[in-house]
Amino acid sequence: MGAEILGIHGIGQQRKSPNSLQESWKFAAQQGVIASNREAKLRSMEVAYYATLFRKGNGRLGREGAIDADAPFSADEQRFFEEVFEDDLIPGTDIRDVQAQVLGLVAIPSNVARFLVAVDRKFGRNAGKYLLFVLRQVYQYLTNEDLSSAIRQKVAESASSATNVILGHSLGSVVLYDMLLRGDLSTKEGCDPKRLAIITFGSPLAWPTIRRMLGHGSHLQDTGCEWSNIFDPQDAITGGVALDGPRTANISVKNGLRDPHAAVNYLRQSVVGNLLL
Predict the structure, then answer these.
(1) For residues 119 and 238, is the Cβ–Cβ distance under 8 A?
(2) Which terminus of the chain is less hemmed in, N or C, by CB atoms within 10 Å?
(3) Torsion, Cα of 213, 218, 223, 226 (10° steps)
(4) Three-class secondary structure of residue 199 per DSSP
């Protein structure tokens, strides 16, 4: 029959097996449910796994499928990052007085490197490198149609007639939003977006450049779903800000300073557990 809750993971999961990733999500989500209601149990849950698709890269993917932060930028990728920091999403990231060599990423164009150093100043050490890592995989999804189509297919195959909640973390939230607007999930019985609740967390959809490159408009569109977006103001991937989409309820959480972007840190929050009851 399929699971009632479907998760869509984010970047950098190539070293985990589908089972280990799913179990870590289920364990963290159960913690969130217990934190919200000690008497409740997590409903059936599955995580759509697509990480292995990033192993078939174009030379900028590492042996484990992760993007090498020191790999050369193409001209188009450089323009993407320049547009991202020109979005001016994050207050306090003025790059004019930043020395590019501080970051130590020699293959990155100097203006991009300066922006990432400014992100470090705002969110803490290594936040800029992590933002770079995440956005390079998001860029792959946005520009490689073969890859993005295969990811959407993997997710669509995981949805079932029982699915009534879909969770999207990081890049997974971009995939989810894209699929809803494409109608890729409405073809399955029970997955009509008007009857589906969606939860995003650690989402980079706040960046206007990402929304524009998806091809659905520069502003977030109405998916027809009840949309709950969970974000940590210290999570650099989100820009530390809420989403401004229709029917979108934003909830701010604190995941701690060690890894505010981690999926399991979001899932174990009581506010997420309450949404999964």
Answers:
(1) no
(2) N
(3) 120
(4) strand
pLDDT per position as a tens digit, 99-150: 555 555 556 777 788 788 888 888 988 898 889 889 998 999 999 999 999 9
DSSP element (H, E) containing 48 = strand 45-48
Q: How far apart are alpha carbons 174 and 223 in whole angstroms? A: 13
Q: What length does the chain have?
A: 277
DSSP state of 159: -
User: Where exactly are the structural domains of the chain?
Assistant: 5-56+144-276, 75-139
Instruction: Report helix, strand or coil for 165.
Output: strand
Q: Positive or negative, the Cα torsion across 183, 184, 187, 193? A: negative
- Give the model confidence (pLDDT) of 175-224 as tens digits: 999 999 999 986 566 667 667 899 999 999 999 999 999 999 889 999 98
The CATH number of the domain covering residues in 5-56+144-276: 3.40.50
